[in-house]
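Dear colleagues,

For the upcoming journal club I promised to circulate an example of a predicted protein-ligand complex. I picked one with copper (II) ion because it came up in last month's discussion. The inputs are reproduced below in full, followed by the predicted structure.
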Amino acid sequence: MKLTRRRFIHAVGAGVAGGYFNLPVFAQSSELNLLKIPDLYTGHAISGVHHYDLVMQTGEVNFLPGLSTSTMGINGNYLGPTLRFRNGDDVAMHVKNQLGEPTTLHWHGLHVPAKSDGGPGQTIVAGSEWSPEFQIIQSGGTYWYHSHVLGKTGEQVYKGLSGLIIIEDSESSRLELPSSYGVDDIPLIVQDRAFHEDGSFIYLGSHMDVMTGMHGDTILVNGTVAPIFVPITSRVRFRLLNAANARTFNFAFDDNREFQLIGSDGGLLNAALRMRNIELAPAERAEIIVDFSDGSPVNLISRPIPAESPFAQQGMMRNMLPLSSRSIQLLTIEPQATLEQRVRVPSALASIRRMNESEATRTRRFTLSMPMGMGMMNMRGGQGRRGGMMYGMGGNFLINGKPMDMMVINERINMGDTEIWEIFNDSMMTHPFHIHHGQFQILDRNGVTAPPEELGFKDTLRVGPGQTARFIMQFERFSDPDTAYMYHCHILEHEDNGMMGQFTVI
Ligand code: C2O
Ligand code: CU
Ligand code: CU
């Protein structure tokens, strides 16, 4: 379905609110396209085990009118199906690599044995198949999967190797939340991409793209350029996934309407939170419920990160991402004339027990740093530029002074232990720190307790420039002295250039 540009501009112009709202950028397409919804894949059960066949393949997509883009996808040309699992299910994944190059497939946020994790240690060589089997031990929520191949995660994810995972558990399905997939339960996989004039993807066009992480000027939602969504119910659950390589989105509506945040990375919150915007860095998820009962059109946008935000770029990094200071159009929403009424959001959702610091047996400390000249030292000079600063030196994104090395296990953790991890960001930009093996709870940043929207389970933690942030996590159930899990910055160019480490649970 295509809509005209005129209608689009009308929709965007409606109801501008908020102090720093500019005209949306990135709305360069002349037509709107109906938001694609990835296929829902529930697998097939054979004697109690749920089997999923996933083929990682290359493809061609017409993102831009009349032009074709070489892509990668899973069971399709771009992105993959939405995998649905139930808590407690035994699953068998059959992942075929038909890319013609090595890859891996990682289940982001899932608590699985290291061998089944799909990190850089579980390479699937070209032409072969990887078949991990594991049990789903997970709260109902929104997770995702993506390529995690050493050194080329950024490129492969950029080309399309990611998809959503929806997990249901008895707790979450008992609640009357919108849950008809593609009707009132809508995945929004949000990414930014850049294109050459011939339609091919631009990936790492300049050294800056490594330094800041790869940013593009065209938004894709579920692989759709200039998408429009037509709600047919009064309330819709959006499952927001920031699947960008590097860009942080500050999700909001252009009429500044309120929405309810019901879930974060690791499942539902204890209670819905009324909000008007939510910042998600790469890999972070949020489940929100939006009310369309007034029937008026609205746009999902990304507002700029205010310069005074603790997560805003500092010093010279600020000059590197000028587009971050503008609002970005993400999704046009035009509710159908008559809407099916939906029940209100229940007030009590999950029952998460907050972990206590005293449960931790130890604190591990990590310092994140970027190439020479990008450290906190330079912040004192404001925008000052040091002589000899170089971009894209490769391998200079470090954790505790070391780049990722497949031959080194950086940390060994005793199974069953609860630990506090303290992350110090010694650089001028925010790094979303992600750890495999499971979910954690954020304690604080610079001693300030995490805000309510971050008090659920999380697997990715934003650490602003100069900040020290802490989380608490239990390393339980799976031990394997020979196979490592990863922790890393989820700006994929930082990860690919060294800002990653390995740990085993023993
Ligand atoms: Cu989203 Cu190490 O991964
Ligand atoms: Cu992960
Ligand atoms: Cu980073």
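Two points we might discuss: The longest helix spans residues 5-13. The chain has a mean pLDDT of 90.

See you all on Thursday,
B. R.
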